[in-house]
Amino acid sequence: MNNPLLADWDTPYGLPPFDKVQPALFAPAFAQALPAHLAELDAIASSGETPDFDNTIAAFDRSGRLVSRLSLLFENLTSSETSPALQAVELELAPTLAGHRNAIYLHDKLFARIDVLHARRDALDLQPEQLRLLERIHLDFVRAGAKLPEAAKARYGQLMERMAELEARFAQNVLADEAAFALPLREKADFAGLPDYLVAAARNAAAQRGLPEGSHIITLSPSLAEPFLSFSSRRDLREALWRARVSRGAHPGEHDNRPIASELVSLRQEQARLHGYPSFAHYQLADRMAGTPDAVSALLEKVWEPAKAKAAVDREALTEMAKSLGEPVPIAAWDWRYLAEKVRQQRFSLDDAELKPYFRLENMIAAMFDCATRLFGIRFEERHSVPLHHPDARLWEVHDAAGKLIGLFIGDNFARPSKRSGAWMHVFRNQSGHGGGTLPIVINNNNFAKAQPTLLSFEDVRTLFHEFGHGLHGLLSLVNYERLSGTQVLQDFVELPSQLFEHWAQEEAVLQRFATHVTTGEPMPAALRERLKRARRFNQAWETVMYTGPALIDMALHSLPHGTQVDIAAFETEQQRILGIPEDIGQRHYLSHFQHLFGGPYYAAGYYVYMWAEVLDADGYDAFLEAGDPFHEETAKRLLRHVYSAGNTQDPTLAYRAFRGRDPRVEPMLAKRGLIAAPAH
Ligand SMILES: [Zn+2]
After folding, report:
1. In sequence order, which ranges of 209-285 are alpha helices (DSSP H)?
2. pLDDT at 451
């Protein structure tokens, strides 16, 4: 019983006792916490009282806090600060944790009580949030197999356990391939075209991997790889890097993700069939705003051909540029970023290296906090000397306008080999108990290349704001029941708060105040801001093609009917041909490392959600533009009430309508991507 993971966490704010956490403590902690949770559920299920909202639904929502505290800590560590020891525990525990989930959702006696209440829900005289919770929990059970015939339940349980194991392995394999690769820069010629900040970041990356002083490497981390592909005039090195990136997870041997993905697709087909859906995509979409695969296709098809046509026009400009530089044509995928950067510089006399000194990480953190203050009245105060999971992570108290503590925010911004790539928000604790119950502990992870000082590209700035938008969704949550709090909304609604927040990163007033030069302290000149704005519309078609291709492949793959055996490599090649994915553009993600699809279940048949939410965010931001003020008070109030603080207490279609006063229109998204002419404001 002296396992510190199980003891009361009498730490500041109830944070995990990071200084006492050891990988070996997790298995024994779960071994006690999981049965304790099931005992709680047994007590609810076998209560002699007639089922009512409080003794069944609210009691279920309150149960298992010890397990969720442990699981959240475990998930955060395995993503942000893992180790071989922790990875071994992760693989060992994946089926156990999936098995626990099955034990909850396939608990017949418990579900019987929930089902009775659900059938009588209109007669129970519930508050809207209570009714929503009852419906949500009932649906969680149904979607996890509670209504399956007894014989099917055993098989369902096996499927879930096997899939959890495969997903954990898939993510670890990507990390292994990323950790194994480095492009060394040795000779002077290897540095051709690289801006100073990138050379500095390459030196830091080498130091981080323990290479001798003075070494430089480019890793597959986007904050190194993206600028390298944009600036390096060494075509051979660009090609080597591009190929290494594309082939992650596709090397024969112990880290090969192709058989794992193929098996996952088959198991998901079987899962969907047990539920009575024609495909896994149908099963997934049934619990999303979009509702059906057809609704998703209709949206993606609106952009696919127009984006390719627009990219073809850009390709001509890039080809001309290649010829003028004496580079070979036709251009290849490892040339596109490089040539686009050259065209961008020529047309808008703008390059990333000129912009970057204005985007110091520290200033951009101040900018995003300031936007949150102006919109929602909250304030951030940094707290030092509280131990966190890594020395680079930082902690802020979050206070409302009246000065009351409403949550904790952790920012973990730098890339390191022990962190998975990409950027994401997670929690160590969810909000619940409406204002005064449990305060949220939210974490944002980025993978910026650490330097002194750290300078960001404008894409990085957008990512920083994006994750902070998710962070605010968790921090501002003001609901009673944990299941409905924060970001636990439908998957194609969850990107609205994050993508919407990106818009403020591009606001004149924000750039004017916070984009100051790292050495001179001068604000970014108005002319440069204007060039940045115009240049940002350039090459949008390439972005759209890079994103939409994989979204279409995801839908095609997960729409296959039960019993279809798939070789994912062959399937992907076939789809590339059917869709006509331009070879010189390629895909943002390829199936062998597509973590959205195979690193977990949530974004499977769901890569489209970013574009779905973009319809909402582009239309939603227009509400501020129409009001004539990016911080318009009344609009911000409605946004807070119906989106950022509302969690899952309302149907998302109704929530959006309440904020906007009408349903969303698709045109602002199409205009933002340059696929139709922009409307005037
Ligand atoms: Zn997001």
Report:
1. 222-231, 235-246, 258-275, 280-285
2. 86
β-bridge mates for residue 411, sequence order: 394, 444
Q: What pairing do the DSSP bridges indicate for beta strands 441-448 and 405-414?
A: parallel
H/E segment holding residue 397: strand 394-399
Please give the Cα distance from 580 to 172 (Å, whole number).
Answer: 31
Q: How many whole angstroms from 492 Cα to the centroid of ligand 1? A: 10
Residue with tokens 């093609």: 545
Question: Among residues 447, 446, 488, 489, which one has the least CA distance to residue 467?
Answer: 446
Distance CA(286)–CA(279), nearest Å, equals 11
* Interstrand relation of 405-414 and 394-399 (parallel, antiparallel or unpaired): antiparallel
> What's the helix, strand, coil split of the chain in %, to 5?
60, 5, 35
pLDDT for 679 equals 66
Contact 482, 432 (CB under 8 A): yes
Alpha-carbon span 36 to 401, nearest angstrom: 40
Angle at 500 between CA 201 and CA 677, to 5 degrees: 100
Give the DSSP H/E element, type plus range, for residue 293.
helix 293-325
Two tokens, residue 109: 């006696």
Q: Contact 102/161 with Cβ under 8 angstroms? A: yes
pLDDT digits (tens, 9 = 90+) for 393-427: 999 999 999 999 999 999 999 998 899 888 999 99
- Is 396 in a helix, a strand, or coil? strand
Tens of pLDDT, residue by residue over 594-605, are: 999 999 999 999
Rounded to the nearest whole angstrom, what is the distance from the C-alpha of residue 23 to the centroid of ligand 1? Answer: 29
Q: If we measure between CA atoms, which residue out of 336, 310, 231 comes closest to residue 548?
A: 310
Place of tokens 């390298």: 228
Collapsing DSSP to helix, strand or coil, 441 comes out as strand
Q: Quick check: 333 and 240 in contact, CB under 8 A?
A: no
d(CA 63, CA 560): 38
Dihedral (CA of 10, 12, 17, 20) sign: negative
Using the mean position of ligand 1's atoms as its centre, give its distance from the Cα of residue 470 in Å: 7
- Residue 13's pLDDT band, with cuts at 50, 70 and 90, is very high
Mean pLDDT of 541-551: 97
Distance in Å, CA 474 to ligand 1 centroid = 13
Active site residues: 467
